[in-house]
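Exercise 3.2. Students should predict the tertiary structure of the chain below and write it as structure tokens, then compare their answer with the key that follows.

Predict this chain's 3D structure.
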Amino acid sequence: MKRALLFSGMVGLFLVATACSNADELVKATKDYEKAVCACKDIACTTGATLKFTEATAKLAEKKLTPSEDEVKEITEATTNAMACTMKLATAAMPAMPAMPAMPAMPK
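Answer key:
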């Protein structure tokens, strides 16, 4: 579910970025998303930030924005950083793997 939300946010961004004249609002929304996600301390927080970002990009999609090459780079960097922050939290929340049992001694 959490990955689905993250994926839907990224898809929303992609749709806005590819269909999109002046994309300042999209760049700002993406950077705000990055800041929000990277400030999170748990996955529930990142899920909320992703939902908010998805809503924001859905509204921006109606404006038919077209990002410049530099804006695309900024958007890509911000979403990559946001994904890295999310993955860091997701892996930290995973339970530790149990220790492997000791191998029995081989007979001689």
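Discussion points: Helices lie at 2-19, 24-39, 43-61, 69-93. The chain is about 70% helix and 0% strand.
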